[in-house]
Amino acid sequence: MKPEFHIEPEVVYRKRKSHHAPHHGGAWKIAYADFVTAMMAFFMLMWILGATDEDQRKGIADYFTPTVIQMKNSGGSNGVLGGRSLRSDDGVAVHAALTGPRPASNTGGGGGGPLEAETASQDKKVNPGNSRAADQERFRMVERIIAARLAGDPTVKGLKGQIRFVRVHDGLRIDMVERADFAMFGVGNSVFSVAALAMVHSVAATVAATPNRLTVRGHTDSLAFAAGGAADTATNNWTLSSARADATRRALTAAGVDTRRFRRIEGVSDTDPYNPADRSDPRNRRISVTLLYKDA
């Protein structure tokens, strides 16, 4: 019997040669990075629009608005105004004294004089023959700038809600109000806390750039003093509110507000409460700074 032979079929493996795509370089990475950066900026913009109100957005816009730099007469570009003056209709500081601290002479008494004369022409440009309308426009600017200062300063950012703007018969009243967890002064004295002093300086930095005269009023709650808190003692809520009003005047003056602009400093104790329903409400303890109409 003959043996059987099986011939295995020959299998040939051919390895397919791969063809790599041509090298395109790293240009796409740069384009992608630009896209991601643009998207991040877009989402940050949307977040800012959602987290701020109209006054804050106006203040931010004013801060980044380009201004004309005058080498000799510029009022400076540091701060929210960015070189602008509240008294100039086109937003360019017409003189350093209009936007910076007042001259060193702080011993004047009655007001008027050069301080008022400097801005008479500007008010006529804003609204000829109608100084009250010019004051109202200035008050709106003051509100926006103070709100922007508080929002942009981390020292006082949490105190934004403690400043209230109220239009009154005499002008614009700026109330600086206490709350349960924030006291502007020490207990029973007229010494500012660090945060409260920074808040007053934020107000002063804006108010100093206006020509309007000022009144300062101190308020207390109805809580009596612990040690013999009778009304006829040497220290009571009347003397305390007056001392706090004068302390505010001194803080405003130190921050650049001319002494001649103060028309009245007064303490009213607890006679004009913020919350009449609760005479012990911390919000009744406050300081009111009123920018007066020029024709008041």
TrEMBL record:
<dbReference type="InterPro" id="IPR025713">
    <property type="entry name" value="MotB-like_N_dom"/>
</dbReference>
<feature type="region of interest" description="Disordered">
    <location>
        <begin position="98"/>
        <end position="134"/>
    </location>
</feature>
<protein>
    <submittedName>
        <fullName>Chemotaxis protein MotB</fullName>
    </submittedName>
</protein>
<feature type="transmembrane region" description="Helical">
    <location>
        <begin position="182"/>
        <end position="204"/>
    </location>
</feature>
<comment type="similarity">
    <text>Belongs to the MotB family.</text>
</comment>
<dbReference type="Pfam" id="PF00691">
    <property type="entry name" value="OmpA"/>
</dbReference>
<dbReference type="GO" id="GO:0005886">
    <property type="term" value="C:plasma membrane"/>
</dbReference>
<dbReference type="InterPro" id="IPR050330">
    <property type="entry name" value="Bact_OuterMem_StrucFunc"/>
</dbReference>
<keyword id="KW-1133">Transmembrane helix</keyword>
<dbReference type="Pfam" id="PF13677">
    <property type="entry name" value="MotB_plug"/>
</dbReference>
<dbReference type="InterPro" id="IPR006665">
    <property type="entry name" value="OmpA-like"/>
</dbReference>
<keyword id="KW-0472">Membrane</keyword>
<feature type="transmembrane region" description="Helical">
    <location>
        <begin position="30"/>
        <end position="49"/>
    </location>
</feature>
<keyword id="KW-0812">Transmembrane</keyword>
<feature type="domain" description="OmpA-like">
    <location>
        <begin position="172"/>
        <end position="295"/>
    </location>
</feature>
<dbReference type="InterPro" id="IPR036737">
    <property type="entry name" value="OmpA-like_sf"/>
</dbReference>
<keyword id="KW-1003">Cell membrane</keyword>
